[in-house]
Amino acid sequence: MKQFKPERKTTVGFQRSQVSYYTYLQKLKAGVIYPAYFLFGSEHPAKYEFIEELKKVGSYQKVSELACATSVSEAKLNEFLADFYMRSLWAERRLLLVTDFQNLTTSAQKKLLELAKTLNAQSLITLVIESKYDSAVKALVEKYSIAVLNFYEADETTQIHQIIKMARDLGLTMDYDAARMLLELIGDNYYNLTQELNKIKVYLGSKTKVTQDTIFAISGLSKESSIEDFLTACLTRKLKESLVNFSRLRLDQIHPSVIISSLVRRILEVLLVKLSKSPESLSFSKSRLNKLLEYQRYWATNELTWFLDELFKIDRAIKSGYTNSYILLEELLVRTSKNYWSLS
């Protein structure tokens, strides 16, 4: 599951607010369906989870999709809409899904948004428009009355405020520093954060105030934190610490595939920083960028690409049914040490 990103701005009706994807999902599960949605931003499973939940709750008799991965003529759009409206005369609930909206011409985009504006709670049609982030598209969409769910990269401050809101929805009071610590320990994955907040709620019992001490007591020893400790030890090439943290993960029964995927993601981030002429321009929070800049100093580019290749080999072995994958990973950790490279 690629990681969830809280949104910066949402427009609902004629009011602007900080309504989150999380809030929309809760409304959806309660049976509240808006006539039109605009899903805006980077690719990740949270967006498609929302679509699948909508299909389930809406109980649509027909789902029609217009994929605009390449440019689509306005004539094709008109044909698609005409066919959709003809079918909707059968008095069946129908979901209209348009993907890669950013590839449509401006006139075609306006036509779809005008359609969204005409839909209401009594409509048998629900319109969902999906688009990559584009400043021109964003400016256009904000002129229309449509529920916008933003999934594009948020800065650290926005993520922290989102965590505070998630805690508040659970009846907890969390200050900024506690939320920042939770973000640093757990990361910005929506599902991991939800699980951790629910764990904190159970731990506190009748209490509601969440402090940094609470976060450390509950989350500081969590599996997510263990993985983060492991990644830091690996990428700073501290063999002893890497092996100790690897043993912790194994005792916690963290599957090798999870460890490999975490390593691959972090190594790719380090490579991106190492190869960039201007790392400060990359979309990382300041704290994450500082860590990546530290990590890249321990590695040559060819060493990082070698590390990735070896991880992919182990991943293929796991998928082929190899049962001693922990041993393969442990051997690889030894081979990443500076001493090994100096002797090879």
Describe the structure.
This protein is an alpha/beta fold. 58% of the residues lie in helices and 11% in strands. It has helices at residues 21-29, 45-58, 74-88, 106-118, 135-141, 156-169, 176-186, 190-204, 212-219, 223-235, 239-251, 256-275, 286-296, 301-319, 325-335, 338-343, and strands at residues 10-12, 15-17, 36-40, 62-67, 94-99, 125-131, 147-150, 173-174, 209-210. The strands form three sheets. Strands 4-5-6-3-7 form a five-stranded parallel sheet, with helices on both faces. A hairpin with a 2-residue loop joins strand 1 (10-12) and strand 2 (15-17). Helix 10 (223-235) runs antiparallel to helix 11 (239-251) and helix 14 (301-319) packs antiparallel against helix 15. The longest helix is centred in the C-terminal third of the chain and has 20 residues, at 256-275. It is globular, with a radius of gyration of 23 Å.
Number of helices: 16
Strand order of the largest sheet: 4-5-6-3-7
Estimated structural class: alpha/beta
What are the low-pLDDT stretches, counting only 5+ consecutive residues below 50? 1-19, 220-224
Largest sheet: 5 strands, parallel
Which whole number gives the mean pLDDT? 78
Tell me the radius of gyration: 23 Å
SSE layout and pairing:
Blueprint: E1 10-12, E2 15-17, H1 21-29, E3 36-40, H2 45-58, E4 62-67, H3 74-88, E5 94-99, H4 106-118, E6 125-131, H5 135-141, E7 147-150, H6 156-169, E8 173-174, H7 176-186, H8 190-204, E9 209-210, H9 212-219, H10 223-235, H11 239-251, H12 256-275, H13 286-296, H14 301-319, H15 325-335, H16 338-343
Parallel strand pairs: 3-6, 3-7, 4-5, 5-6, 8-9
Antiparallel strand pairs: 1-2
